[in-house]
Design goal:
The complex is a heterodimer of chains A (489) and B (240). Chain A has 489 residues and is an alpha/beta fold. Chain A folds into 3 domains: 226 residues, Orthogonal Bundle (MetI-like fold); 133 residues, Periplasmic binding protein-like II (D-Maltodextrin-Binding Protein, domain 2, 3-Layer(aba) Sandwich); 92 residues, D-Maltodextrin-Binding Protein, domain 2 (3-Layer(aba) Sandwich), CATH 3.40.190.10. In chain A, 56% of the residues lie in helices and 14% in strands. Chain A is built from 18 helices and 14 strands. In chain A, the strands form 3 sheets. A 6-stranded mixed beta sheet of chain A has the order 1-6-2-7-14-8. Chain A has a 5-stranded mixed beta sheet with strand order 11-10-12-9-13, sandwiched between helices. In chain A, strand 10, helix 5 and strand 11 form a beta-alpha-beta unit. In chain A, helix 11 packs antiparallel against helix 12, helix 12 crosses helix 14 and helix 16 packs antiparallel against helix 18. Chain A starts with a helix and ends with a helix. Chain B has a 6-stranded mixed beta sheet with strand order 6-7-8-3-9-10, sandwiched between helices. Chain B contains 9 helices and 10 strands. Chain B is an alpha/beta fold and 240 residues long. In chain B, helix 3 packs across helix 4, helix 4 packs across helix 5 and helix 5 packs parallel to helix 6. Classes of the chains: A alpha/beta (489), B alpha/beta (240). At the A-B interface, helix 15 and helix 16 of A face helix 2, strand 6 and helix 3 of B. Chain A: It is found in: Cell membrane.
């Protein structure tokens, strides 16, 4: 390869990295507009739980919701500015524990396990459990006889649904990972109804006039409370403010704003495909490009470096290295990528106690997985280089390392460039899988917008177009590289 | 300069060299001839350990090459080699082909290496090709570059493994001319070849190999005029 090609490549990487870096600085936390007070309180939350806290995708990255309004009110009364840090729900308690945030409001229910690590205020909101359905004939739980209802896997609602099934005959319970999935299944007529908490259900009821809901009698109520650092002096202040807000009606006022059904626009005919409804959310999806790009670039680099090392192991004379590299490849090619991802993301904390970040888990999985494929490609490429090249190098007294780096690999690389590009393209597309562990890449953002607007076709098509354009860009880049490298043929 | 004692080489069950002993003196030009499959290429490739001998000794300037596999790089850089199929580095220009080993192995400065390379290119008549890639050269030009590449390491011995066998007939002469002038400059050379005319004219000695055995070792005039063995006689009848 020529020096200029190297320079071009490194320039391209630099460009991507600096763009990514700039965006990283933008994300993270968000300060409230006015610096009214001298002191600041940092609130931790997980902004994926409308209407408690969520990102309004039509207006950029701002976190809004019931909890946010309550928090603002309390902070203001106590004389603090409020800063909100968004993180994974599972990371909230550890963040309090390590004093990275002052308090947490995330629709969090006090339970014995959490109480060991943090203190809780008095509850500021009691949720009720609703049956949401699009069937006007279902008005009580008895009407659910012979019907299918959905619940979120591992939720309080799951227990509530089981109680219904005990009382009513032939109720079939289906589980899904996310609440939006439940609603989508109802809309697709696969479910007759779903058990959803009132605060969450209200969003769907507001936006969809076909849906109705009724309260499950004697349902277990889950109260939300503010979590604070163990022994925090703020707990008393928060309790005092919550009591005050309950008394003066401020809490009800905020609850009304977020939880009351709004008057439905009746008989509004929706066209089957309407991009105008998601237009305001398109910039939100576009921001996922940088997450995806950063993810793909780091994964490719990791996979390429590791793959090269593995390929050298595979052609090595040392049997242990050959055997190890072959076993590695066989394992990573022989199991599903999503399984590898979930093992690394979920099992790492279990085995080591280290709470691995979604991005790191994703990059590790994709890098390790890609290395298996890349090592095979490079091995084939090295074997494809004329044996005479090796002999000529040896006859000149060139060392093994120099020979590999400067004679064999550059020629192998040229031959395998199309296959490598193919692998990189696959990785780019497959990166959409990281959405399952909550990384806000293009795919995840499209899903969030879908859940937000109850339109699935438009955001998914938008994401599809973005992926297609990225893959085309990679293809063109590959052709340019190929042309550069074939100089001298 | 090179001493070979009882050299054996086996590939699997096939014994290609069956105990060859000879030596090559300083400044001597030795032509190695014989029918195909006689083991002449293997013999040559054993000298710089591209093939590892199964048994026997090879000494280069009284150092035993076969005993110290780890120091083989030190020996190889003093033994230039030219292959039948050139094996130029296709991703490098002619200039880079010539300077690569001196810079990487001998740690010569780039500038010095380039000056030396230009000198050599002039010597093989390719001064105008330094910026070309090997893919753009004819077979004869490629082989002359390959010779220059080997010479760039300032070797004390040059090994040629059928240097003209892959060339179109009209290009053979330009390569042989370069080799001839190299021989006249006093370079020690071992040449596996089918060019009997060249062997007759340029070589100081002819080694005739057949079936892994050194059958005759003679000066060319004697060998070509009156071969001592039946095997050499019948071989010469076929090729001349």
């Amino acid at each position: 390869m020529q020096k200029r090609t190297y320079v071009l490549l490194s320039l391209a990487f630099l460009l991507v990295f600096s763009a990514v870096g700039a965006v990283l600085h933008m994300g993270g936390h968000q300060a409230m507009a006015k610096e009214k007070h001298k002191k600041t309180l940092v609130m931790g939350t997980s902004a994926d739980y409308a209407p408690y806290e969520y990102i309004d995708t039509t207006k950029g990255n701002k976190i809004i919701g019931f909890d946010v309004d309550v928090a603002k009110h309390i902070a203001d009364k106590l004389g603090y500015n409020l800063v909100i840090k968004d993180m994974d729900f599972n990371g909230l308690v550890p963040a309090l524990d390590s004093k990275r945030v002052d308090f947490v409001m995330a629709g969090m229910t006090p339970n014995a396990e959490r109480k060991k690590k943090v203190d809780f205020s008095s509850t500021y909101y009691q949720a009720k459990q609703l049956v949401v359905t699009d069937d006007p004939k279902i008005k009580t739980i008895e009407d659910l006889k012979g019907k299918t209802i959905g619940v979120q896997l591992g939720s309080i609602q799951e227990k509530e649904a089981k109680k219904i099934a005990d009382k009513v005959d032939k109720v079939h319970i289906e589980k899904r990972n996310k609440v939006p999935d439940l609603v989508q299944e109802i809309m697709s007529k696969r479910f007759d109804g779903a058990v959803i908490e009132d605060g969450v259900a209200i969003e769907y009821l507001n936006k969809n006039s076909d849906l109705r809901a009724f309260e499950i009698p004697d349902s277990a109520t889950a109260g939300s409370a503010v979590a604070l650092q163990k022994g925090s002096g703020l707990t008393a202040d928060f309790n005092q403010q919550i009591a005050m807000m309950k008394k003066n009606g401020e809490l009800d006022k905020i609850a009304d704003k977020w939880f009351e059904p709004k008057s439905k626009k009746k008989a509004e005919k929706k066209s089957i495909v309407d991009f105008s409804t998601i237009m305001p959310s398109v910039p939100y999806i576009l921001k996922g490009i940088l997450t995806t790009l950063k993810f793909v670039v780091v994964s490719i680099l990791l996979g390429f470096v590791l793959g090269t090392v593995l390929s050298l192991f595979k052609i090595s004379k040392v049997r242990v290295l050959r055997w190890g590299a072959d076993a590695y490849t066989s394992i990573f090619r022989g199991t599903p990528l999503i399984l590898q991802l979930l093992i690394i993301y979920n099992a790492t904390p279990q085995l080591t106690g280290y709470k691995i970040e979604p991005f790191l888990a994703g990059v590790l999985t994709f890098g390790l997985n890609s290395a298996a494929y890349v090592s095979e490609i490079i091995r084939a490429g090295i074997n494809g280089v004329d044996k005479g090249q090796r002999e000529a190098s040896m006859a000149l007294g060139v060392s093994y390392g120099s020979m590999m780096r400067q004679i064999i690999l550059p020629q192998a690389l040229k031959n395998i460039l199309p296959a490598l590009m193919n692998e990189f393209i696959t990785l780019t597309k497959e990166s959409a899988i990281i959405a399952v562990i909550g990384t806000t890449d293009i795919m995840r953002r499209a899903q969030i917008v879908g859940a937000d607007t109850y339109r699935y076709f438009e955001p998914l098509i938008t994401a599809g177009i973005i992926y297609y354009v990225m893959v085309m860009a990679l293809t063109v880049l590959g052709r340019m590289l190929e042309r550069r490298m074939s100089r001298g043929d | 300069m090179i001493k070979i004692e009882n050299l054996h080489k086996t590939f699997g069950k096939n014994e290609v060299l069956k105990g060859i002993s000879t030596q090559i003196g300083q400044g001597e030009v030795v032509a190695i001839i014989g029918p195909s499959g006689s083991g002449k290429s293997t013999f040559l490739r054993c000298i710089n350990m591209l093939e590892e001998p199964t048994d026997g000794k090879i000494l280069f300037k009284d150092q035993e090459v076969t005993a110290q596999a780890s120091k083989i790089q030190q020996v190889r850089k003093k033994i230039g080699m030219v292959f039948q199929h050139f094996h130029l580095f296709p991703h490098m220009t002619v200039m880079d082909n010539l300077t690569y080993a001196p810079v990487t192995v001998n740690k010569v400065s780039k500038r010095e290496a380039e000056a030396g390379a230009r000198e050599l290119l002039k010597r093989v008549g390719l001064a105008d090709k330094e910026a070309e890639y090997p893919g753009r050269l004819s077979g004869g030009q490629k082989q002359r570059v390959a010779i220059a590449r080997a010479l760039a390491m300032s070797p004390e011995v040059m090994l040629f493994d059928e240097p003209t066998s892959a060339l179109d007939p009209e290009m053979v002469k330009e390569v042989l001319d370069v080799m001839k002038s190299l021989a006249q400059s006093g370079m020690t050379m071992a040449i596996v070849t089918h060019e009997m005319g060249f062997a007759k004219e340029v070589a100081d000695r002819v080694l005739f190999l057949d079936d892994g055995v050194l059958v005759e070792d003679a000066v060319p005039a004697e060998f070509f005029a009156q071969p001592k063995t039946e095997r050499a006689k019948s071989f010469l009848e076929k090729v001349l």
